[in-house]
Amino acid sequence: MSTLTDPPPSESFRLSQLIYDTRYRSLTIQVVAFMLIMLGLSWLVSNTVQNLQALGKDIDFGFLGQPAGYDIGQRLVPYDSQATHARAAFVGILNTLLVAVLGCALATVLGVTVGVLRLSKNWIVARLMSVYVEGFRNIPTLLWILLVFAIFSEGLPHPSTFRPDAETGQAESTMLFGSIAMTRQGSFIPRLVYADGAILFVIAIVLALIGIWALRRMAHRRQDATGETMPVLIPSVAILLSALIAANLIISAGSRSNELSLVAVGAEDGMSLAEFSGAAGRIDFCRIRGSGGSFSTQNLLDEREISYRAREFFGDRDSARGLARGECVMIAVPASEAAAFAAELTPELRGDAVAVVLSDTVLEGPAVQVEVPEITESGIARFEGGIPLRNPLIALWLALSLYTSAFIAENVRSGILAVSRGQTEAAFALGLRPNRTMSLVILPQALRVIVPPLISQYLNLTKNSSLALAVGYMDVRSTLGGITINQTGRELEGMLLLGGFYLVTSLIISGAMNVYNQSIKLKER
Amino acid sequence: MKRSVIFGALTVAGLTAGAASAATLDDIQARGNLICGVTTGLVGFAAPDANGEWQGFDVGVCRAVAAAVFGDPTAVEFVPTTGQTRFTALASGEVDMLARNTTWTFSRDVDLKFEFVGINYYDGQGFMVPTELGVSSARDLDGATVCIQTGTTTELNLADFFRVNNISYEPVPIETNAEAQQQYLAGACDVYTTDASGLAATRATFENPGDHVILPEIISKEPLGPLVRHGDHDWGDIVRWTLNALISAEELGITSANVEELSAGTNNPEINRMLGSEGELGAMLGLEPDWAKNAIMVGGNYGELFEKNIGENTPIGLARGLNALWTEGGLLYSPPFR
C-alpha cells in the first residue's frame, strides 16, 4: 500500500498498460476471453452451416407445417395422422407436461411423507424409510421405468380375461371396485361426464375459493385483534361442498328435462332410430369425450339393443370434422339446434350425403354422471369409456415419482433437522401442542431449507421425463425429437426446438418456484 | 472450465466435419474395415449368432461389399441401429452404408439425401395376430392395440390403412424388433405389424409359431435395399455393383462353389468381364480386378444367400416370390456388366 503515498505522475495512456497495469489487466483478459468465446461460437455455427451445405441440407422449419402421418395413442387434444408435425409436437409437449405435473405432485406427497417418517422414533418405520430412500435414489431412473413397465405390461391380466365366458357367464378377471380395470394394455378408470352448462361448476368453485379466502382472512384478523382462534377447515369444506351441490341442482334442473335430438348422416327425413339402425346395420356413433349427452345417448342405444360402435372425439368441432370425414354417422345435439346443425353439416359431407334429424329424442340426464369403462362384447376385447391410462404413462409417472421422491425425502429430512431442537422445546414451553408446533414453528422454518433444492428436483423430474422413449410414451422427445425428425430428416431444427422447449419449461418452473421461495423465505426487517 | 468446453466442442465439430467429407472409399481403405449399419437383431436378416458373429441376408450384403473392397469378408464392423437412429448414423458418417430392411421411398431418397443403390428384397407390410384373437382379415382389427416400430414407413402405412378403412386402433410405439416381440408375446398388444419378411422371421423364433397367423392383407410396397449417403457416387457405385454382381451371378450360374474355377476364364464374355479375367471393370470402380469374385465367394450369389438365410429350408421359410430372378417370374433384374 506504500505506492499510494506518492500520487502517480499524470501520464498519457500507453498500450502496454492493458497488460501490465492491474487497473486494466482484468478488463483486458475479460475482453480477450469474450472475443475467443465469440470466435469459437461463430466457428461452430459456420462449421455446422458448411457441413449441412456439404450434405445438401439447409435450415428450414417448414416441415412443421406438413402432415405428420403417424398416430399418437395417449393424447390430451384432438390429433390424427393428417395433422401437422407442429400439432404432433404440441401433443407431445402436453404429454410431457402431463407426466411432469403428475410426477411432481406424487413425488412431493411421497417425498414429504417418507422424509418425515424417516425421522420417526419408531425404529422399524425409520429403517424401512431408509431402505426406500437408498433403494430408489441409488438405482438409475431408466431401470425403474423399465421395471415398472414390465410389471404392468406382463404382470396384469389381458383385457380378454375380463370378458365373461360364453358358457359359464363368469369372467376370469374382475375390475377393482367394479369400476377400475387394470390390464396389460393399460388401465381404465371411471370418468365423470357433465351435462351442458358444466361451466357453472367452475364458477361455483371459483366463488367458493373466494369465500374461503375471505373466511381465512377474517379468522386471521380476529386472531390478531383478540387472540382467539377460529376453526377454518370445516367451514371451508362446507363452503366448497355447498357451492358444488348448488351448481349441481341448478344444472340438473335444466339438463334432466333437456331434450337432445339425434342427427344422422345417410338417414331419410323423419326416420326413427330403429329404422335408421335397420337401414345402416351398425351405427357409428360420435361420442364426445366427457359429454353427459353422449353418455345418455349410448345408454339409450344399449337399452334398445341397437348395434353401434362409438368413435370418441374431443368436442363439437372435432366431432363435426369426424362426421364430415365419415368417421362416424350419428351425433346427439340439443333439440333446438338440431335442424340448424344438420343444415350446416350437409354441405360439408362427402358426396351427396345428407344429414337429417331423427324422430327419437334423448333426455340429457343429470348434471354429473359416472362413465364406467366396459369390456366390448364382440370383436377384439378392449375397454371402452372411462379414462384410459396407458401403461407407458403409468410406468413413467410411477417410476419418476418414486425415484425423485427419494431425493425430496432427503431434502425434507434435512430441512426439518435444520430447525434447532430449542425451537420445539420453546414452543412446548409456551404450551403449543405437537401438531401446532409442527405447523406453526418447525415447518415454516424448515421450508426455507427445503424449497431451493426442491426446485432442482422438479426440474430433474421434468427433464427425466424424456426417458419416455424407452417405454413408448409419446412425449415431446418421442414425437418432435423422435418420429418427426426421423420422418423429415430435420435433426438440427428438431433438436433446437426440443432444447428450446426444455429450456423454457425449466426456466418457467424455476421462476414459479422462486416466487414461492420468496414468499416463505426469512424476511428480514 | 469454459475453455475445455470450447475445445471439446471444437473437437466434436472437427470430427464430424472430417467424417462428412466425400471419398468414402479412401476413408474405408485407410481405416482398414467397412462399417455397416444393420438392424439391432432380426433373425435371418441380421442377428448375431451364438458365437457373436453377425449372420443373415443383409449381413451377407455387407460382407460381400467388404470382400469386394478388401478381399476379406471379415473386414467389416457391424453397427446395430434402430428405426430412429439409422438415418442419423448414416448421414453423420458413423456408418459407411446401411443394409437394414430400409424401404426405398421418395422422401428418403430426395429429401433425406440418401442414395438407394438397389433393391435386395421386395417386401410389403403385413399383420401378425395370435390365432386365439379369432381375426382372419386386417379389416376386422377395429379397436386393436398395435405394436409398431417407430421411425419406419410401416408406421405411416398403418395410420393410412386404418384411416382409409375407417377403423380405430391404439398404437404402441416400440424401438426394436426384440422389444416388439416381447410386447406382442406378453399380450401388451394384440397385433404386430412390420414388413411381411420381418413378421416371418420374428414368428420363426417363437416357441409355438403355429399359435400365430400372418393376415393375408399386404398393405404396402416395401422395396428394401442398401443405401449410402448422397454425394459420393464412387462409393455408391461400388455398393450398387456389388449387389448387382450377386444378382447377376445367380443369373449366370456363378456360385460360391464354381466361382474359383470360372474366374480362370470361360467362354461367356460377361462372366469373364465380371470376374476380372477380361476387361477392366474392377479398375473402373477403383478396386482389384477380382472384386466380384471375392464378393461372390463370401456367401455365394443372391440365390445362395437367400436360401441359406431366409429361404424355404430355414425356420423363416420365405418363398422367393417377387424376389426370384426375372427369368423365373420375379423382379430381380441386374443391368449388364459391360
Identify the notable features of this structure and list them briefly.
heterodimer, A: 525 residues, mainly alpha, MetI-like fold, 4 domains, three-stranded antiparallel sheet, 58% helix, globular, B: 338 residues, alpha/beta, D-Maltodextrin-Binding Protein, domain 2, 2 domains, five-stranded mixed sheet, three-stranded parallel sheet, 14 helices
SSE inventory with pairings:
The complex is a heterodimer of chains A (525) and B (338).
Chain A lengths: L16 H4 L1 H33 L30 H34 L4 H15 L3 H15 L25 E3 L2 E4 L1 E4 L4 H28 L6 H23 L3 E7 L7 H8 L2 E6 L3 H12 L4 E6 L2 H10 L4 E5 H11 L9 E9 L4 E4 L2 E2 L7 E2 L2 E3 L1 H28 L2 H9 L4 H31 L11 H13 L2 H30 L5
Parallel strand pairs in A: 5-6
Antiparallel strand pairs in A: 1-2, 2-12, 3-9, 4-7, 4-8, 10-11
Chain B lengths: L1 H18 L4 H8 L2 E5 L8 E2 L5 E2 L1 H14 L5 E5 L5 H6 L5 E2 L7 H5 L3 E3 L4 E3 L1 E6 L13 E6 L3 H12 L4 E6 L2 H10 L4 E5 H9 L7 E3 L7 E3 L2 E3 L3 H20 L6 H4 L6 H7 L5 H5 L5 H9 L2 H8 L29
Helix pairs in contact in B: 3-9, 3-13, 9-13
Mean pLDDT of chain A, rounded to whole units? 87
What do we call the CATH topology of the largest domain in chain B?
Answer: D-Maltodextrin-Binding Protein, domain 2
What is the level 1 CATH name of the largest domain in chain B? Alpha Beta
- Give me the side-by-side strand order of the main sheet of chain A: 1-2-12
Alpha-beta content class of chain B: alpha/beta
What's the story with the biggest beta sheet of chain B?
5 strands, mixed
Topology, number of strands of chain A: 12
β content of chain B, as a range?
Answer: 15-25%
Which CATH class of the largest domain in chain A is shown? Mainly Alpha
Q: What is the percent of helical residues of chain B? A: 25-40%
- Overall radius of gyration of chain B: 21 Å
Written as H for each helix and E for each strand, in order along the chain, the element string of chain B is HHEEEHEHEHEEEEHEHEHEEEHHHHHH
Structural class of chain A: mainly alpha
Mean pLDDT of chain B comes to 88
Number of helices of chain A: 16
Q: In which range does the helix fraction of chain A lie?
A: 55-70%
DSSP E strands of chain B, number? 14
**Molecular shape of chain B:** globular
Gyration radius of chain A, in Å: 31 Å
So, CATH architecture of the largest domain in chain B?
A: 3-Layer(aba) Sandwich
